[in-house]
Specification:
249 residues, TIM Barrel, binds pyridoxine-5'-phosphate
Length: 249
């Protein structure tokens, strides 16, 4: 099975909000997240990822519905564990939800969701979403406790937080790669689909591809940054080409 690429287009909305947050209905409001999703699809994206945050700093609810209705790709909806977001997810019906931390209490020291510590508040959300036919992923540090807690909570997938890996260089990068490797092995052994995301770019990708059992990478920032120079379709094509040849072992 080839490694899939999920394209996170939140920062297209970040740019739009920078100018038009108070004028979203204006015909001038640009750039369009929907058009970005079309470009990502044309470049070979396997799914589109969007995060409607509680503070609405980038994607807005109408963006989510528009993309869901008009883009023929699986939709990965990132969300915090709140009643508001569960209600939106049940209406939106994305293919996947990735539960992410949004408040200080939810976040581990490294930035992943504390599934272990927040088990009791996360568990009902996982069940509600799964009962609605939505697959659930947990965005976690590459940490044994968090992987095991994700299996215990019966998540379908984990997304390993690659932020520390991406920000480490030299010998530290090797340590972070080894942690991802161990977490991926454990997750796969526990029958979880193993994804990865945050801070992945063309420079660190070759090292990440030494990690086994990866099913999908979720990549945003670097693709949007690169799109300024070559366009989003070409940026997605470039990333896909760099991911070719991954065998998963
Ligand atoms: N995965 C998750 C859960 C995220 O929240 C994000 C965005 O921060 C990404 C992946 C993509 O990260 P980046 O924009 O650094 O590629």
């Amino acid at each position: 099975m080839s490694l899939l690429l999920g394209v996170n287009i939140d920062h297209i909305a970040t740019l739009r909000q920078a100018r038009y947050a108070d004028m979203l209905d204006s015909p001038n409001a640009e750039p369009s997240p929907l058009a970005a999703a079309e470009d990502a699809l044309a470049g070979g994206a396997d799914s589109i990822t969007i995060h409607v945050r509680g503070d609405r700093r980038h994607m807005q609810e109408p963006d989510a519905y528009e993309i869901r209705e008009q883009i023929a790709l699986p939709l990965n909806f990132e969300m915090g564990n709140t009643h508001e977001m569960v209600a939106i997810a049940l209406k939106l019906k994305p293919d996947f939800v990735c539960l992410v931390p949004e408040t200080r209490e939810e976040v581990t020291t490294e930035g992943g969701l504390d599934v272990d510590g927040l088990f009791n508040s996360l568990q009902p959300t996982v069940s509600i979403l799964q009962d609605a036919g939505i697959k659930v992923s947990m965005f976690i540090d590459p940490d044994e406790n968090q992987v095991e807690a994700s299996a215990r909570i019966q998540a379908d997938m984990i997304e390993l937080h690659t932020g520390c890996f991406a920000n480490a260089f030299g010998a530290e990068r090797e340590v972070e790669t080894a942690r991802l490797h161990a977490a991926a092995l454990l997750g796969n052994g526990l029958k979880l689909q193993v994804n990865a995301g945050h801070g992945i770019n063309l420079q660190n990708l070759p090292e990440l591809l030494t990690v086994p059992h990866l099913a999908e990478l979720n990549i945003g920032h670097t693709l949007i940054a690169r799109s300024v120079r070559i366009g989003l379709t070409a940026a997605v094509q470039e990333m896909r080409a760099a991911m070719e040849g991954y065998t998963g072992v």
